[in-house]
Amino acid sequence: MTVAPQLAEPVLDDLRQVLGDEHVLTGKAARFNRARVPAPFPVHRWAERVPDLVVLPGSTEEVSEVVRIANAHRIPIVPRDGGTGLTDGAVPLRRGIVVDVKRMNGILEIDEVNRTCTVGAGINMLKLNEVLAAYGLIYPDDPASYPCSLVGGRIGTSGWSLIGSRYGHSRDLVLSFDFVLPTGKVIHVGDGAGRKLSKSSSGYQLKHLFMGHQGTLGIATEATLKLFPKPEAELSPFFAFPDYDSAYRTVGELARAGVATFAGAVLFDEWKVDYLRRDDEAYIPQPADVRALVCAVAYGYEDEVIAGGRRLMRIAKENGARYLGDEVSEGDWAARHDRYATPLHGRVRSGQVVPMSWHCEDAAINYSELPQVRLEWHEIVRRLRERFDMFDDWGMFTYTSANTGVDYLTEIDVGIWEQRLDDESWAAWVRAKRDIAEVALRYGGSISACHGSCREGEVDLVPQELGGGYDVMLDVKRAIDPNNIMNPGKYGLDRAYEPDGGSGS
Amino acid sequence: MSAYRHSEQSRPPEARQITEVAIERFDDVFEVDPKLMSVHVVQQVFPNWDTLRIVASRHDHLDWMHSHWAAKVISAQALLDEIDD
């Protein structure tokens, strides 16, 4: 094994003493497998992202001890949960120690009276819900990576949920959590001091500060979550339209209808339908006049889902929707909970199939701006594909983020033939990502509704997006992580340690 | 139950062209046209029973996902029929 000089004995001895030999991994497989996430990745430079060491702590105390050791020796630390994120949060940019929290996957308490549970950050939502089902309860945090992402990662990225329009997103569903700061100090973060409070006005509201930081401020280890009754009923109709404008009008009306059981709506544009016609069993046989799609989803008690469902169906019908039938609707919606199982291949310009990775660029966009953003994003990807026959436009989805239809998680899916990447094509991809982010900002949106914005390309525009808020980020980073050990290199936060202390000082 | 014969299993039914890019060998089981997988993707012999097993497994998985999230799936077609009436 070769490790960085600062990681040689006796640091390794200290870590083994805290964690036990079997939980300090130095092998090649353990380290290379924790070098990347499904986000765009320069595979031709994989070796630059490999950590020196992987540790598997089993408790908050062990995480704290690992961080203390790392801080004392100025060794970079990268927290890693499911490693399913679509930004670079869990990718080591400066090697160092990856702290993988998957062993911390216990259910510590289920409080039926207050409708909460307390879990280790390494637990997966699907596995948690299998247990909660016996109590008639559910934790409705539902990303596309539902079967494989973990609660701690949802905190670190401030995750977005498919059914967030009904139940809220990770920031709403996580009530409080234990958090290890870059010095090793452990704090409890939530509304006020309580573990199970959903609203407090005492002190600064730190919960949001310590969510969505992409591992740059510390490591969540234990969380208390809000629970709901497991739904009696689900409704998930899919509708076809002959043009984008009709589908766009319909999704807006569905989202603005104020139906209490409404959990979300999704709009598929023409490029997405074209993509699905290549190899999705539900859409291959659809007639040629199907050019755009909308789905709406509702959860709740059977009587309320039926009542709300009638209203949603009436809205769709009045807008000229053609219902795709129960089989297609139910099959497609069930598959939305598990997009990471999608077969990955795309087409080069000749039409030939090639193995491709799925890359998803997202933004938060207001409803009124969706049509124009869509056209400009597709044009960016078209130009990229014209130059490099290794990129494929897989179309766009827009998902409601809230129950009023104000804004949408807007994403363009791009297939990349990663094995063909080189420095020139990677640089072009990074430029395209920056251009995509620039469009989002120009239309009054945010660079990301869901994934985070710390990847190459879009990260350059974060100071522009946040303005004076970015200066505060620099000050906060420097105050909480004086030695810049926690996930260094992300979000441009290194500038907080420059001689002038960043522009916020 | 029919007897298993290797030669039968490794010879898929005749393909029907469904679209310019997709074919169908078994009912409602669509495949990318093999012509499009002739340059960069290597083809392999795939037993018929395994194709059907994978399709059935996918349906099992989707059924499981529905019951994981809710006890019952409401038929949107039934709601639409009510509105039409």
Mean pLDDT of chain B: 91
Shape descriptor of chain A reads globular
Helix content bin of chain A: 25-40%
Query: What is the arithmetic mean of pLDDT of chain A?
Result: 95
Shape field of chain B: extended
How does the major sheet of chain A shape up? 8 strands, antiparallel
Order of helices and strands of chain B: HEEEHEH
CATH topology of the largest domain in chain A: Uridine Diphospho-n-acetylenolpyruvylglucosamine Reductase, domain 3
What's the layout of helices and strands?
The complex is a heterodimer of chains A (505) and B (85).
Chain A: H1 11-19, E1 24-25, H2 28-32, E2 53-55, H3 60-73, E3 77-80, E4 97-100, E5 107-111, E6 116-120, H4 125-132, E7 137-138, H5 151-157, H6 164-167, H7 170-173, E8 174-180, E9 186-190, E10 219-226, E11 228-229, E12 233-235, E13 238-241, H8 244-256, E14 262-268, H9 270-279, E15 292-300, H10 302-318, E16 322-323, H11 326-336, E17 345-347, E18 353-355, E19 357-366, H12 370-387, E20 391-400, E21 407-416, H13 423-442, H14 462-466, H15 468-480
Parallel strand pairs in A: 2-4, 3-4
Antiparallel strand pairs in A: 1-2, 5-6, 6-10, 7-11, 8-9, 8-10, 12-15, 13-15, 13-16, 14-15, 14-20, 17-18, 19-21, 20-21
Chain B: H1 6-9, E1 16-17, E2 22-26, E3 29-32, H2 48-69, E4 72-73, H3 76-84
Antiparallel strand pairs in B: 1-2, 2-3
Enzyme class (chain A): oxidoreductase
Family (chain A): Belongs to the FAD-binding oxidoreductase/transferase type 4 family.
GO molecular function, one term (chain A): D-lactate dehydrogenase (NAD+) activity
